[in-house]
Structure formats: structure tokens, C-alpha cells
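Q: Can I see a sequence and its folded structure?
A: Here is a first one.
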Amino acid sequence: MSRPRCFAFLLGSLIALYAGCQDEEPALPQVEGIYVVPSSLDELADETFFDHPFPSDLRMSDGAVRMAGWPNPKGVPLIDEYIGFIDGRLDGFSPVAAGFLRFAGPIDPAGLPDAEGSTLATSAVQLIDIDPASPEVGTRRPIYVTFRAEAGAYWQPNTLSFMPVPGYPLRPHTHYALVVTDALHGEAGATVVAPAALKEVLGLAEPSTPAIEAARSALEPRVSGVRDAGIDPERIVQFAAFTTNDPAEEYLAAAGAIAAQIEAPTADPAAWAVKKENATYTEYEGSYGPTPNYQAGEIPFTHFGDGGGFELDENGVPQVYDTFTLRFSLSIPNADICPMPADGYPIVLYAHGTTGSYRSYIFDGTAASLTDQCLAVMGVDQIFHGTRPGAPDKDTTIEILFFNFQNVEAARTNVRQSGLDEMQRARLFTETHMTLPSTIAVDGQEVRFDASKLMFFGHSQGSLNGPLFLAGNDTVRGAVLSGASAVMQITLLEKTKPEPSVAALVKTIFLQLVQDEANEVSLLYPPIALAQTIVDPVDPENYARYIVNEPVYGGPKSVYMTEGVFADGTGDSFAPPRGCEALATAIGLPFMTPLVHEPTDAVGEPNLVTIPPNGLSGNLADGAASGVLAQWQPEEDDGHFVVFDIPGATAQSAAFLRALADDAKGLVPAP
């Protein structure tokens, strides 16, 4: 070849090569999801536990959720105890707790949706109801989504976390899919892609192992549901299909069976006595029984192994373990001021807070405010208080026993027992039709009570019982809930009173974190999600839907809630305001204006209502019930007590119950 021809050939080759390079853009880096489909669930343990998404129906074994292997990197004995207790006990996953899945590298958190954005079909992360039997099938649920690239004390690197927004729990016994799409990007614009095992599970490639083939077959209906919701499986880079359990199931079964399991209670004729008399009411005391105890074991269930849980029959219904009697205080309006109606006085069942007593409603002023409204009021000792079996002498011991982190079995049952206490107490009026004997009454006249006008007032611990009572009872008209809160994940992080602070104990004692590690704790934190899963059956959030919008027993109930809060969101140190707002939202209550504090977890515009001068009636359940969450700014005392401390809150709550006695659909009076 001559030199000119050789040069021309080389030049042409270089030009062609250059042109070819210009046609091919440089390949972008990729980040894969981590999606292991193990041949045995034993392979998912400790640092590999979240290498398969949690929750996921592929983690079910013999119809129960496999929790063995949940990471406990610090070897905390209490956490091991919790894991061992809950392993194989649940038939589905929490409707409230956070979930976790992993990637092989960091993703760009700017692509994660906020709560409102997560409900859009274009969101990079979506939680979709894919259950054909669900009334919400095809809808996107509002979720919080976070990403942590760094490893931590309880974190594996590159973990994406999600959870239902507080106040928006998932439906029980319902199929959901958590979907991450290729709209998400990695750091520096890296593309995020599905790992090979996930593609095979989604039906995009042939299964390479028997485990993947079985997973593909099991999840085929779930993948179809996601496709029906408008998502092409080709776009999915991470995926978790799971089914929720119903934390309220056992309690509601007991509530429905109690009348057949045990006779209605009666008052002891020999126990009646006049306790206190003043110008507006007279206080009497007495005792009644039997009250069923459903908690098997050695009361007060101090330590794990002492029992404290339910014993179920073959149909899953809790059984009565033994019985006891309860003392009570009963305040009756002065008949000269409030003549007894023909059918008797309306009756309010009062449930006190932790370390209170059957007479707390006398000391906090509720007896006076309600008898001024011509309502009768009854107080009893709550669980582990007063003369009840196993009740300790010290207030600090009562607090420890009720929330009992040392005995997980009792911790997930104490509130349910308390709800059943109220179920039986109501029967004293609705079935036994208890009266105050004329031989005891100060005016010599028998006093009757109108069981058709039965209401409830719960404060603090009593407001945890209240939602369960409302959900399980078909006679109560409604309730005042003071110092109420929900979502254990919030409580564990934000409850600071009584001392010692729960929020501090969780980090130092329960999790054994050192100072620098404590900063990694958040609402979406693996061990906090474990705790939420365990105590779901006593979390009011899981009973809220059954109070107004989806009642199982009776019709919708009217509810007036108070929240003690400052503009910055603090205020109630015992029941975090955020948890109070979550409970109100889950029930379906609007926030009364003017607001003191914008709701922390509102999705979109908050649900607000202004009460007209003549009151607000029938604003819930298509006109069948009434209710609001009323925010009140604390003055001198903690915000936990605003219903007693702020005259406007005291007056509004009392007038609410009076109006509810007068009209079954209720009315919230103007503040």
C-alpha cells in the first residue's frame, strides 16, 4: 500500500472510530436493589435479615410470620425475649409499624416522596392496596419514606424505610404492595435497577431456583394487582407484597362473647355507703361483681414468665381466667337542682389515669362539672390500682406494671383487659339495671339510671381503654377522651413523663445505645418497629376505625377529644400531642378551629371545622354522630391536664356529654 493510501486508510479508520464513540453515550453507574429469595428463612438473620424486604408474605411459615433472626446486634436480652415471644404468633403484618428494604448502593433521597406525594401514581415509592376484596383496592396509602446510607448500631447500610403516616393505619387482613420504581435514582444520577432474583419473581425472567419459582407462583396475584393499579412490572426495582393482621381481633371477639361467658354484675347490697355530700351532688360508694379477669398467670405479671396474656379457645376467643370484685364511687346530682328524669339519670363511666383511684373524678373536678349538667358519674379502680388483685402500693410500680416492658405478654394485654373491664361495668346498667337503694339515698328516694344514655369519660390511662370500649360496646353513645394518644412508635420516642422518661429509657436501657448512636433513632427505626408490632393489640390506632366509620358493635359513637399543645407541638409530656392527633385522625375527627398547632402528620390540607354559635351536630358518619379534636394551650400545669385546668375545655367537655344524653347523635357546643 502506498504511503498516501495508507494514511487515508488510517485517517478514515480513526474518523469511523470517533464517529462510533460519539453514537454511544457513556454507561451510567447502576444501583441494584437487594432482594434475596432464600431456600430457607433461616438464611435471613442478623445482618442479612433485611436482605429480603420486611414485611413480606414470603416471610410466612405455616401461616405465621417468621420473626426469628430479627437483628439484635448488641445482644440485648430483652430484645431476644421479644423476638422469641412474637416469632410465629402473628398471622400477618402490622397495619402501623415501619418496614425496611435494602439497596446495594446509595440512592438519591431527593427522589423520595413526601406523605402527600406518596399517594400519586407517579411516586417513586408507593404503598398500594391490591386486595380485590378491599373497599380501597387500587388506592395509594400515605406513607413516610426515608433512606439511610450509613450503617449504624441497628442499621444495615443503604436501607430504605417506610411506614403508614400516623393516623392512617392500613386495613386489617388486607393485601398490600410496597413498590419502588425506576423513577428513583442513585447518587450522581445512577440508575436504579431490579436485581435478577426480583425480575424472576416478577415474571420478567425464568426462575433460576426452586425457591424463586415458588415465590413467583405465590406472588403472581400480587404482581397482577400492581399491574392493575397501573404499574408495569418492568419498572419495578424493589417490591414487597404483604398481608396485614388485625390487632383488634382477639379483643373484639372477647367483647362479643362476654355476655355468654359470664353473668352480668350486681352491686353488693351490704357495701353501699354515703361518702360525701355537698350542695350540688352526693357521692356514694360500693362494690360490684363479678368482673372477669382474662389474663392468665400470676397477677400483677411483673416479669416475663408470670403470664398476663389471653388464653384462647379453638375459635380464637379469649376465655375468662377468674373473677374479682371492684369498688366504685358514684356521684348523683342534687335532686332539688336536677330532679331525676322518669327513666333515671344519664350515667357517665369515668376511667382515671395511672396512679389515680376510683375517686379521681372527685378530686379533678369532673364530678362537679358533670353533676352540674344533671349527669350521674361513676368511677372505679383501673387495672393494678386500689383494691384490685395484685395492685402494688407504690405509684412508680403501678406505672411500670401497666406499660410493662419487662413482660411483653402483659404489655400487649393490659389495655385489652381494661377495655373488657369497661364492657362488664356497662352491663351493671344495661342488663342488671342497678339502682341506688332508697335506704341509702340521702333523700330516702331510690335513684335509677337511664342505660340508654350511657357515656364514657377517660383520662390518660383511661383514655387508652376508651377507644377499645367504644369499639367493642353496642350501648355506649360516645365519650370524652382526655390525654389520649396512639402509635407506640411515637410514644417510645416522645413520652417524657412521668419520670423516668420513657424516651430516654428506650435509648439507654432498651436499646443500650451510647450517646453518638442515640442520634440514629427515629420514627422509622428497626427496633422501634419491632416494639410497635408486638404491642399493636393495645394501640388505640388499631381500634379507631371501629368507633365511627366502621362500627362492629352498635352504631357510630360521638367523640370529643382534648389536646394540650403549644404552637411548637410540645405540651403534653405524658401523651405526646403527635400521638393524640394521630388517634383523632384515625377516628375521623376534624380539628376544631382556631388551631393552636398545625397537625404534624396531616396529609394535604388538615381536616378543620369551625363550630357555629349553636354548636356542631351530626358532622360524623353521615349525620349519625358528632365530634372534634379540640386543642387547648396549657397554662401552668402540663398539657396532659387541660380538660381539668382550662375552664373552656372543662365546660365544653361537660356540655358535650349533656348534649349527647339529650340527643343520640350528639352536639359539640361552641367553645
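Q: Show me another, different protein.
A: A second, unrelated one:
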Amino acid sequence: MPRAWRGAVVLVGVLLAGPAALAAPFTFDDVVAQARDRAAKPYSAPREIPEFMQKLSYNEFRSIRFDAEQSLWRDAGARFEVQLIPAGAYYRRPVKINLVDASGAKPLPFRKDYFVSDNDALARRLPANLGFAGFKLTFPLNRRSVREPVLTFAGASYFRGVGKGNVLGLAARGLAIDTGLMSGEEFPQFVEYWLERPARQAEAMRFYALLDSKRVTGAYQFSVYPGAPTRVDVTAVLFVRDRIELFGAAPLTSMFYYGENTARPVGHWRPEVHASDGLLIQNGTGEWLWNPLLNPKALHVQAFGVNGVKGFGLLQRDTRFDSYQDGETRHDRQPSAWLTPRGDWGRGRIMLIEIPSRDAGNDNVVAFWSPPGPVTAGQRFDLDYRISFGGPEVDHNAPARAINTFVGRGEPLNGEGGGRAYRVVVDFAGDALDKLGPDTLPTADVSAQEGGEVIEQFLTYLEDAKRWRLSILARPAEGKPLALRSALSADGKPVTETWTYTLPEPNTIFGDKE
């Protein structure tokens, strides 16, 4: 893989971290050296916490709270602070945390008195050497006097970020290995962190992480810029220990239970339940592609070929409260995540993996970049990219968009068709359409893949809603998914992103049983 502007990212981080970082004898190169050394040795799994701590219920684990008065760097009045997360429940393998300043890197010992709990019996049983699961990076994001989490690292290589006005939603990961394969997924873990002490009025912060698993090691540098959106610049150097069939770089993970394009499960009162509603890709050619998400009956894997991908992300485009009616979870305020590679990543695939889920408690959607084929032992990958956590406008350079996708049983308006057909309705809106002259009408190019058939299509303008509505009646080939693709154009040029949708068989539209 071509090297992706690693030096430039490191330089930016140094300039923003302040004088203390310039003098620090501990640098990202030290983490890279540790990752390289580990890759040359057999994998050794981290220790696990005592069994009774692993068996804590959700509420029991939540009762163990970090004492915010002991936040790291609070005594210095820094804008950035760190709150610690204890190991326990699903966080079974503790991680090491180090603090970095001008004098070097020093381990942060675990202390029980970092945490408080209303459960006195549990508090007494906490092991003195329990360890940390991770940390929350806090910053005055929405109100000048109130620090709140902008980035949370805990569990495997997961981290969740928010921009101004957001609540926690989807997650990013350091790496995905064999996700969706029958052989089973391997979950690499960030096993150690180094947090650089920020200057008092710093607007950005930098830290490092060491990743380890059976088949790969890695060094990561994160530079965080809170705001609208919150930006996270990532530099990663990865060393492959053993062959990996599906190498997932820069993965994003989210939840889609049901939405406007699916049937609502029986008995559920909320109109929609999802943390993201679509995958957006900008290919190296400049084409924008939007693929609405779904909750399949069986594992659903799609691969979108890309060359020099300019960006991809899982977005929550629908930010209307009325779409969810959930005053607690606030899906309408959950962030989108847009990933921008730095440098040319060459040929590869954006993989979209959708996993069946019976409830909203599972992150059942994964998207990542992957090289064209397997990777082998001894390979090194250098990755540089930016993740923007915020509203759906993180893809602000996209053309007019597909803002709604509705799917139902097909009823031909011209009396033809029949069989197992689907009515698919797509709404397009955006500046490129609004700017068309009164004598310029867009046209829709609709195609069906996998042997499917487009029975009818028509495009109308909805004056009150200020959008163009494309209605499609289509039928899949026997035993094949319904695979459709469309975009609007004017004067022979595209004025919208390309909408693509694959509905596997069986599905919820016809009430199919599993």
C-alpha cells in the first residue's frame, strides 16, 4: 500500500501539542518500535480480570463510577481532562495507561479510590489491581464551563466520538480482522495508551496506542480536535504476524434495527430505530455513492470497488426527532462519521457488512476499507486518515442527495407486472437540483443488477417538500436479491449522488420467516 502522508500528520500533531511535547523523549516512533518488536514474537494474551468481575450485570457495572474530581489534569486547569473507566463486565482484559510530559512516559497505577459506587458490597470487593478498561477524553464542547466526553476508548479497539450537539452513537475501531467470514472474527485490542499532557489552553490533544492480536500488531497516533464536527487524525503503522483473509482498515461500526425502508417489527411503537441510516462513499473518480442500510434476515456482505477512495462513512442523515420519537436514546442527535484518507490508498474495496439483529442492543453494521485480497505475514501497512464525528453535513461536498428511501410490496400502476415485485421510492434534494433552470428537468437513470427487471419508473417534483421523487417498480430474478442503482442527471451531467440498494431474499417486506 502506498505510504499515506505519515510525516505530515506527525508534524501537525507536534505543532499543536505545545512545547512540552517537543521536549518529550517519548514519541510515536517508540510505539512503532514496540509494535515491530511484538510482531516478531508469538502473541501473548493479556491477563483477564477475576471471574466475578466479568459476571457483573449491566447495572452493577454502571454503579462503579469514576470520581470526576480526580480527572487527570484538573489541578492544572487544562481544558482537556481524562476520566478513567474500570475493567469489568464485558471489559475483561485491562489495559495499561501512561502519562507523557517533558520528563518522559510514566505508568498510571490503578487505584480503587478513583471510583465511587452506591453498591457498598461491590465497592469493597473491587480488586486492588483490577486495572483500567480505557478512558474518556473530556472537553468544554457545548458549554464553556462544562466538560463532557468527546472521545471514549474502551473495549478491543473501539472508540466513540461526538461533535457539538451530539450524543453517543456509532463507533470507530482501530482494525477489523475477518469480519463477516465463516471462520470467525478476530478482535485486536489496544493494550496500552500514552496520553500527552496538553497545554492549559490547548484546542487539540495527542496520544498514542499499542494494538495487539494473534495476527497483527500496530502503533497508533491520535490527534483530537473537538468541535462541530470533532476531528480525529489517525496515523497507524501495522505489522502482520500471520495471513489475514479480510484485512479491515479504518473500520466504522454502527446499529440499524429498522427504518423507513424496512418493515417495523410487530409491537414496536417507535417509527425508526438506528444509529446510522446509510453508507456514503466518494470514489477516486469523484463519484458519490449512497447505500441505505438494512437489518437482513441473514448475514449480508457487499463489496464496493474503489481506486484512490477519497472518503467513506456511516451517516445518520435523518436528524428529525419525529422519525424516532425517542426522548431517551435520541437517535436524531447521534453522530455521523466521515473518514477521509490522507494520501492515495490505491485499489481496494469498501466493505459493508450487515448482521441480523433481533434488538437495538447490537452493533450490527460494519464498514471498512480493505485491500483487493488477503494480506500475508511480514507485510507492513502505513495508514493516515481523518475521522469527523458530527452531523450528516460531514460530507458537505457531496452533490444533491438521496434523503429518503421507502420500500414496500409492488403494485404496478399500469396493471402489468405481478409476482414478487417491490415498490421503491427515493427522494432526492439539494442545491444542485434547486439551481436547475425552469426549462431544465432532471431525468432518472435506473438499472437493475443480478438479473432483476425494472417494470416501471417515473419522476415527479413535490412542490411542498422541495424534492424530486423517483418511484420504481422492480422485480428480482428468482432466488436473487433485488439490486437497483439510480442517479438524476440534467443536460447529460449527474446532479445527484448515485443511489444504490440491495435487498436480499428473504426479507421483512413480505414478512418472510427466517
